[in-house]
């Protein structure tokens, strides 16, 4: 076997799940959580999992998917601290004997999300999320090695939350981008006030500077491909349109409907509505 066996990647997209919320979205939809993308970067024998999902049921499905590959899972990486990208890391780490890793900033945000669990996550998904102590550790130089290939953790600052990062796989011309980039799903805007969207644009520019051909986004429409240029352009357009329409509408409902008119094909308008309410609070 050559010293550097070829790498590949696969993506598991967990379908949207219902939130424990009785109020409907203004367009009549039930409140749902966006689809979640889980990425497996692998060589001949070993693999690294990026952004394990939210619920125990999702983790079981992802675990069975990983097991079916026959790969040895060495690490589980979380791009950022939102619980939907790491709350099942411990369950999967125990199942496969893997190590959970993240940037220092993400680890701090993980602790913040644990403190929010009783008031937010567990209310939305009662009884569905496993115990999730923060077990992630940093790695020297923010760098992992997979069968001789570098996997580089790139910290990009604020995107749809603070202290986010991406995983750059140069030999695949791939970035696993978490929530820095979106792909066919309404973007989470609730934490984008007070300069947050400008910071998010800076994070997008960092990702663009890595010159990927493919980007796996944390929330994607599974019918869409991973074309990097398209996903970057569409994510940036969504933020620019947000700024434009915030200046034209005096309330959350007007903004929501205007955004829906601009982006009718994006999945999960409930995510847009949640952001609209926060932006106009």
TrEMBL record:
Coiled coil: none annotated. The lineage of its organism: Bacteria, Bacillati, Actinomycetota, Actinomycetes, Kitasatosporales. Residues 35-219 form the Metallo-beta-lactamase domain. InterPro entries: Metallo-B-lactamas, NDM-1-like, RibonucZ/Hydroxyglut_hydro. This is MBL fold metallo-hydrolase. SMART domains: Lactamase_B.
């Amino acid at each position: 076997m050559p010293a550097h066996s070829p790498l590949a990647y696969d993506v598991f997209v967990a379908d949207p799940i219902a939130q424990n919320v009785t109020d409907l979205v203004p367009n009549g939809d039930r409140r749902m959580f966006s689809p979640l993308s889980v990425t497996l970067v692998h060589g001949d024998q070993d693999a690294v999992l990026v952004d394990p999902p939210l619920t125990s049921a999702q983790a079981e499905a992802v675990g069975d998917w990983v097991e079916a590959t026959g790969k040895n899972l060495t690490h589980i990486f979380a791009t950022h601290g939102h619980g939907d990208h790491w709350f099942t890391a411990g369950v999967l780490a125990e199942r496969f004997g893997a190590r959970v890793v993240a940037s220092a900033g993400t680890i701090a945000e993980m602790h913040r999300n644990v403190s929010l669990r009783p008031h937010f996550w567990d209310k939305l998904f009662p009884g569905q999320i496993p115990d999730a102590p923060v077990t992630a550790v940093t790695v020297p130089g923010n760098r992992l090695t997979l069968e001789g290939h570098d996997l580089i953790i790139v910290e990009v600052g604020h995107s749809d939350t603070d202290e986010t990062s991406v995983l750059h796989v140069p030999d695949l011309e791939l970035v696993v981008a978490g929530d820095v980039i979106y792909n066919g799903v309404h973007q989470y805007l609730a934490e984008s006030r007070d300069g947050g969207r400008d910071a998010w644009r800076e994070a997008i520019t960092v990702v663009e500077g890595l010159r990927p051909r493919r980007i796996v986004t944390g929330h994607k429409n599974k019918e869409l491909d991973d074309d990097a240029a398209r996903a970057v352009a569409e994510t940036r357009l969504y933020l620019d349109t947000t700024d434009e329409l915030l200046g034209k509408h005096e309330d959350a409902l007007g903004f929501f409907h205007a955004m829906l008119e601009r982006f009718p094909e994006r999945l999960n308008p409930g995510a847009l509505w949640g952001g609209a309410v926060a932006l106009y609070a």
